[in-house]
């Protein structure tokens, strides 16, 4: 509709061959340029620099003595790197799936026209407004076997209750998942709730008239129409998972040992505290490749689908 | 009581029960801030105790809370303002004068948010060192602005797109130039959206810890660095750590509650209208 209305106006503008008209045509591109330019320059430009560093033998300070892909060979021979990469897959996968499931359930639940829904929604969303550093502090306390949940339940009389994941190197990675899910599931809930509300009520009524059961209505009508919401949730959750550096630092510090290392903390430790800039840069580039390999096809297909649909 | 009312009551109770669980960690932290160090580590943890401000006094005595808070305010509002100034023209031209490449451009901008910031820390650190921007409010403001810019552009774009083109065309017929069109028509119409976008950018900057810990030491350190300074060397002093954390998040919690609608809209990246 709008394009039909604007067609004559833009046609008229095209005929005005003055300087002002020329500026008017170029200006839109000029004003987009700075945003795009800085975004690309500061991220991809600097990634390129990091890539160059990863080909060198830099240790404490950057230097440009190229050694080819030797740093990558060292990286893949490094046991700690394998732990970190596996952790990211485990953490990211569990985090995204749990948030989606809990968020969807909460949204369906809040959608039952509960009173004071606004206040409830704000409370569910509150953790999202907190710094990951604070989340880390809070959960380090709650998960501390001597102080938090374990001590509390034992105090109620269940002496055998054990919940010491934080200090158990096999389980510690799941404490990160718990804290991160606590932080983000309310956010996914809010997205899903908005999605549920935008579904036409008459669809529900028609399905109910045809005798469809409630679970059937949800799986056949509601879930498919929430697809765009799932898309944006996954994008944002993936972004949070990749950024979880702060959370690891505040909650476990990468420990016990290096059991909860993520690629980001691995890179940080090697570049800044262990004087291995070359190796750290190589790990950053591997991270980049991993992210691009997963996200770009997904982004591409989703956006393409949106354009046609 | 009839069955539907019982069901409603049960649902409401359950909803508040979940809210309690969600809010419990925050509540507990605030509570611990008012305990003595002894009470803070008592087992089982006590819910009833005599509140004390000792933790707060010690935190205030050891670190200048106001200086950190002021840094947080200047940096998060400054970066948000800068981001909006750069992003509004971009979003305007993408929304109203789209080209074939608009989607691609947005996609590339957003893709930068998917990359872990550690990957670019080294070059930014070196650049800042050479330009004397380390530990300065200006340096952190610029970094945060760049960090949030893709999201700000994208959110503004979605808000601007909802404005019918006809309204702007009508303004143009009446002889408004692009600038007047933006100032007198577009901005007032999308003010709620801009406010939510701004609030999101303020919250993200306020909570940012990675860059602030790596690029500041004392002069320009914001509140996240303040908490961290209580966290690393003496993580065992829970009352003090809780008091410091409470001080750091209180402004966001209170401000968020007062502007609930904007906060919800901002934190959901505009999905909730």
In short:
Chain A is mainly α and 309 residues long.
Count of the domains of chain B: 1
How would you spell out the order of helices and strands of chain A? Answer: HHHHHHHHHHHHHH
Average pLDDT reading of chain A: 79
Rg of chain A (C-alpha, Å): 25 Å
Helix content of chain A: over 70%
Biggest sheet of chain B, open or closed, and with what strands and sense?
A: none
Counted by DSSP, the helix tally of chain A is: 14
The low-pLDDT segments of chain A are: 1-16
Structural class of chain A: mainly alpha
Query: Looking at the structure, what is the overall shape of chain B?
Result: globular
The counted number of beta strands of chain A is 0
CATH architecture of chain B: Orthogonal Bundle
Name the average pLDDT of chain B: 83
Number of helices of chain B: 14
What does this molecule look like?
The complex is a heterodimer of chains A (309) and B (273). With 309 residues, chain A is mainly α. Chain A contains 14 helices and no strands. The longest helix of chain A has 36 residues. The N terminus of chain A is likely disordered. Chain B is mainly α and 273 residues long. Chain B has a single domain, classed as MetI-like fold, CATH 1.10.3720. Helix content of chain B is 76%, strand content 0%. Chain B contains 14 helices and no strands. Classes of the chains: A mainly alpha (309), B mainly alpha (273). Chains A and B meet through α1, α2, α4, α5 and α6 of A and α1, α4, α5, α6 and α7 of B.
């Amino acid at each position: 509709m709008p394009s039909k209305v604007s067609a004559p106006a833009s046609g008229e503008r095209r005929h005005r061959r003055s300087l002002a008209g020329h500026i008017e045509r170029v200006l839109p591109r000029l004003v987009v340029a700075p945003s795009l330019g800085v975004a690309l320059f500061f991220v991809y430009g600097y990634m390129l620099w990091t890539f160059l560093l990863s080909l060198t033998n830099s240790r404490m300070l950057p230097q440009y003595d190229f050694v080819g892909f030797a740093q990558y060979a060292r990286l893949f021979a490094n046991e700690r790197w394998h732990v970190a990469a596996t952790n990211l897959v485990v953490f990211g996968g569990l985090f995204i799936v749990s948030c989606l499931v809990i968020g969807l359930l909460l949204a369906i639940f809040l959608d039952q026209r509960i009173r004071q829904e606004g206040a409830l929604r704000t409370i569910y969303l509150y953790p999202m407004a907190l710094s990951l550093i604070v989340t880390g502090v809070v959960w380090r306390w709650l998960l501390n076997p001597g102080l938090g949940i374990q001590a509390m339940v034992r105090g109620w009389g269940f002496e055998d209750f054990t919940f010491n994941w934080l200090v158990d190197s096999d389980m510690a990675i799941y404490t990160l998942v718990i804290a991160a899910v606590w932080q983000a599931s309310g956010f996914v809930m809010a997205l899903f709730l908005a999605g549920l509300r935008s579904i036409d009520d008459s669809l529900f009524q028609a399905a109910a008239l045809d005798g469809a059961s409630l679970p059937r209505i949800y799986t056949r009508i509601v879930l498919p129409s929430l697809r765009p919401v799932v898309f944006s949730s996954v994008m944002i959750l993936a972004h949070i998972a990749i950024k979880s550096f702060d959370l690891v630092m505040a909650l476990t510090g990468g420990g016990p040992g290096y059991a909860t290392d993520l690629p980001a903390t691995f890179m940080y430790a090697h570049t800044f505290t262990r004087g291995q800039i070359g190796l750290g840069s190589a790990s950053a580039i591997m991270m980049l490749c991993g992210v691009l390999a997963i996200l770009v096809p997904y982004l591409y297909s989703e956006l393409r689908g949106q354009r046609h649909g | 009581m009839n069955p539907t009312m019982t069901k409603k009551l049960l649902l409401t109770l359950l909803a508040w029960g979940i809210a309690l669980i969600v809010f419990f960690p925050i509540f507990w932290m605030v509570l611990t801030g008012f305990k003595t160090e002894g009470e803070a580590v008592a087992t089982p943890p006590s819910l009833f105790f005599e509140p004390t401000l000792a933790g707060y006094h010690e935190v205030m005595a050891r670190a200048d809370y106001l200086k950190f808070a002021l840094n947080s305010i200047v940096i998060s509002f400054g970066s948000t303002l800068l981001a909006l100034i750069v992003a509004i023209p971009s979003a305007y031209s993408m929304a109203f004068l789209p080209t074939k490449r608009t989607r691609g451009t947005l996609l590339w901008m957003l893709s930068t948010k998917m990359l872990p910031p550690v990957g670019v820390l080294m070059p930014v650190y070196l650049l800042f060192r050479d330009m004397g921007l380390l530990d300065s409010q200006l340096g952190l403001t610029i970094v945060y602005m760049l960090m949030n810019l893709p999201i700000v552009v994208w959110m503004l774009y979605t808000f601007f797109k909802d404005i019918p083109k006809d309204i702007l065309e009508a303004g143009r017929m009446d002889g408004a130039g692009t600038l007047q069109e933006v100032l007198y028509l577009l901005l007032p119409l999308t003010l709620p959206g801009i406010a939510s976008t701004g609030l999101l950018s303020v919250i993200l900057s306020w909570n940012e810890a990675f860059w602030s810990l790596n690029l500041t030491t004392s002069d320009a350190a914001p509140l996240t660095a303040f908490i961290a300074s209580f966290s690393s060397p003496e993580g065992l002093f829970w009352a003090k750590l809780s008091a410091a954390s409470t001080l750091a998040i209180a402004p966001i919690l209170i401000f968020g509650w007062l502007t609930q609608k904007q906060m919800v809209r901002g934190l959901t990246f505009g999905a909730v209208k």
